[in-house]
Automatic annotation (TrEMBL), chain A:
Residues covered by the Malonyl-CoA:ACP transacylase (MAT) domain: 5-302
Keyword annotations from UniProtKB, A to Z: Acyltransferase, Transferase
Gene3D superfamilies found in the cross-reference section: Malonyl-CoA ACP transacylase, ACP-binding, Malonyl-Coenzyme A Acyl Carrier Protein, domain 2
Naturally occurring in which organism (per UniProt): Sphaerisporangium corydalis
Record's protein name: [acyl-carrier-protein] S-malonyltransferase
The keyword Transferase is annotated on this UniProt entry: yes
Domain of life: Bacteria
InterPro entries per the UniProt record, alphabetical: Ac_transferase_dom_sf, Acyl_transferase_dom, Acyl_Trfase/lysoPLipase, Mal-CoA-ACP_Trans/PKS_FabD, Malonyl_transacylase_ACP-bd
Transmembrane regions listed in the UniProt entry: none
EC number: 2.3.1.39
A Gene Ontology molecular function term of the record: [acyl-carrier-protein] S-malonyltransferase activity
Catalytic activity: holo-[ACP] + malonyl-CoA = malonyl-[ACP] + CoA
TrEMBL record, chain B:
Keywords: Cytoplasm, Fatty acid biosynthesis, Fatty acid metabolism, Lipid biosynthesis, Lipid metabolism, Phosphopantetheine, Phosphoprotein
Keyword Flavoprotein assigned: no
Protein name in the entry: Acyl carrier protein
A Pfam cross-reference name: PP-binding
All residue ranges annotated as the Carrier domain in the record: 8-83
Organism of this sequence: Sphaerisporangium corydalis
Xref: Gene3D superfamilies: ACP-like (1.10.1200.10)
PROSITE patterns reported for this sequence: CARRIER (PS50075)
PTM characteristics: 4'-phosphopantetheine is transferred from CoA to a specific serine of apo-ACP by AcpS. This modification is essential for activity because fatty acids are bound in thioester linkage to the sulfhydryl of the prosthetic group.
Family: Belongs to the acyl carrier protein (ACP) family.
Gene that encodes it: acpP
Length: 308, 83
């Protein structure tokens, strides 16, 4: 059983789209996605520096477009036959997942996520907030420490990895008094994503989503909200809005993937993080981090074999 | 005097720690490999590897230094310079 997953922000590196532009048709697709996003995604994915592509208003449509062009290289037109895999996205990856599953058209997903990115960048400028990775430690102690400092566990990534979100003051307080045995690592994000601090962004996303007519997913599709399979397109879209201020339960998603008997996990670009987590949370599965067109070719072979 | 030969001990130790933290098979871990690009080991896992190295070998790598360690050999060299 195959799973195809789209990563969240953090793994994008300068020039990560460059190898993909050599594949016929990709430039045209990126130009279309650039129209949808209102940004020059080609330049951003090839020439822009690390700081520029770290800006969440840029990163979100850029990552979504990257995942979609890679998926198109592997599977062809996403409006063609349904992808024979379980589909899931981590955080912003849920927008690419929406298009992979046929809930939204690819251009719609990019336009919608561009609005999410702009709105979250603006919400991040209201109060100084941020996120911090908490690695290891006793899970109950970590949870208690977050609560004590008024922080939210914004991401549950499994494998002992929790991402805390809150004001910079609260994060500093946690760093001064870390839970026993846990190592803390600040994340280079503009704000406390997946916490109530992003409420203004959720409202804007809700407004942008209002006129969309989602289709029901054509593939099994997981939700970050609780790791369950969502069979209604309207429900998935509603959850995309809710998730702006709600924790990412990637741990629950991984549990569901295990329960479904997933044996192979394919991560779209910028790949690595989810394959890394799966090595520990989903032992016995094989991970494929798709970073280049050559990786895409290898994955296409995989699917050809599995669907026979 | 510059050490030109990697001690087998340091490489084996780093391989074992990398496997414990990330489940990357030891045979895939060679000195020139980069954590992110070649092994799919992201920056948070590199932090965990540093913690394990500290606990096992007593070698402390401060965060500012950690961001500069991008290959397996970087860790090996760091361990060897502290001996």
């Amino acid at each position: 059983m195959l799973a195809i997953v789209a990563p969240g922000q953090g793994a994008q590196t300068p020039g990560f789209l460059t190898p993909w532009l050599e594949v016929p048709g990709v430039r045209r697709r990126l130009a279309a996605y650039s129209e949808s996003a209102g940004l020059d995604l080609i330049t951003l994915g090839t020439d822009a520096d690390a700081e520029t592509i770290r800006d969440t208003a840029v990163a979100q449509p850029l990552l979504t477009a990257a995942a979609l062009v890679a998926a198109e290289v592997i599977f062809g037109d996403l409006a063609g036959p349904a992808i024979p895999a379980v589909v899931a996205g981590h955080s912003v990856g849920e927008f690419a997942a929406a298009a992979l599953a046929g809930v939204l058209r690819p251009e719609e997903a990019v336009a919608l996520v561009a609005e999410r990115g702009r709105a979250m960048a603006e919400a991040s400028a209201v109060t100084p907030t941020g996120m911090l990775a908490v690695l290891g430690g006793d899970p109950d102690e970590v949870a208690a420490a977050l609560e004590r400092h008024g922080l939210v566990a914004a991401n549950h990534n499994g494998a002992g990895q929790v991402i805390a979100g809150g004001t910079t003051g609260q994060l500093d307080a946690l760093r001064a008094a870390p839970p026993a045995g846990a190592r803390l690592r600040p994340l280079a994000v503009a704000g406390a994503f997946h916490t109530p601090h992003m409420a203004p962004a959720a409202e804007r996303l809700a407004a942008a989503a209002r006129d969309l007519r989602p289709e029901d997913p054509r593939t099994p599709l997981l939700s970050n909200h609780d790791g369950t399979l969502v069979t209604s397109g309207a429900e998935y879209l509603r959850r995309l809005v809710v998730q702006v201020t709600s924790p990412v339960r990637w741990d629950a998603c991984q549990d569901t993937l295990a329960g479904l008997g997933v044996t192979t996990l394919v991560e779209l670009p910028p790949a690595g993080t989810l394959v890394n987590l799966a090595r520990r949370a989903l032992p016995g599965t094989t991970g494929h981090a798709v970073k280049t067109p050559a990786d895409a070719g290898a994955v296409r072979e995989l699917f050809a074999v599995e669907t026979v | 005097m510059t050490q030109t030969q990697t001690e087998p001990g340091a490489l084996e130790t780093v391989r074992r720690i990398i496997f414990t933290v990330t489940a990357v098979p030891t045979e895939q871990v060679s000195p020139e490999k980069r954590f992110l690009e070649d092994l799919d080991v992201d920056s948070l896992s590199v932090v965990e590897i540093a913690v394990a190295i500290q606990e096992e070998l007593g070698v402390l790598v401060p965060d500012e230094e950690l961001v500069q360690l991008t290959t397996v050999q970087d860790f090996i060299s760091r361990i060897e310079t502290s001996r």
